[in-house]
Amino acid sequence: MPETTAKPARRFRDRRSLLPPLQRWPAILLALILGSAGGWLASSINLPLPWMIGSMLATTIASMVGAPIAMAAGLRTLMVMVLGVMLGSGFTPEILAVLGEWTASLLCMALYILLGTGACYYFFRRLCGYDRVTAYFAATPGGLNEMVLMGTAYGGDGRLISLVHSARILVVVLTIPFAFRWFLDVSPTGGVGVPGPSLVDTNAIDLVILAATGLLGWLAARAIKMPAASIVGPMLASAAVHLAGVTSEAPPAEIVAAAQVGVGAAIGARFANTSVAFILKALRDSLGATLILVLITLIFAGALDLWLGIGFGPLVLAYAPGGLAEMSLIAIALGSDAALVATHHIVRIIMIVVLATPAFARLTGRKPKEAI
Prior knowledge:
Structural class: mainly alpha
């Protein structure tokens, strides 16, 4: 009898945990306010990808000085869903004709992951003094949430793994737009780099269709446990309705800008409640690994461009060790092939999530210390 009463209570607590507790909302609102202010400032001085970069910088600085900021996982999911719908709107019938040209490059992603993980593992293990588990799961070029979960389960330092991956994304997002501007003479398109029509110019029916693709795509992807479900599911659903000609609209620019602020704030908030010394160590270690990955990225992009003729710039974005949402946004802001970039990053994430943990278990013979 006691068991039958305990189970419903546990399920009730699980449902409530999907929303942040009330006491966290002031910290979440502060993060969004700071992120919006940072985005506005970055936009006013014409930085590339201003709403995400400005938000990320503002909240990272706030975290490092001890400001009480946080981000709700559910809110970040909603923001990423918007970006997924936006990415899907870039899939046109013309893209189907060139998918075959990406096959060789997508297959080479496996070699990139192998080389990148191996080089970064050596760097973290030998030069940074990480234990084997932490070094391995911090070395993978992607899959932040999954690698933190798996690394912790195998006994690694989940906080350090999280910060190293977050710092890698931070460094890549901050440097690549400027590198494209300085070295390739490529500047953001569309003014402040926010794609999409104005909200007042968007048809209400199109808004309903886009919202439905985001929600249904996410639910379907989550139901089948798809990696990066919050962005991949909406992107695939949006791509389907756009390829079918149901709508040709993209999400309004104002909503996309708000989503960028949320994603940027989520990155910065990862550094909250952590000592400055620990953050600086993670930044230093991550910077070294990021330089290794960027060097490998440039080698792959150059070689594949010579072989396939896809284009050096798009290939750099496709192989760059940043997040799927972040690198796809940069591709759009720089007028690059966002579909190519998003497809490559999806394949990279799937390969890492599916293969990284079994490979670690097989190589080391270890079993997780806690349930995954």
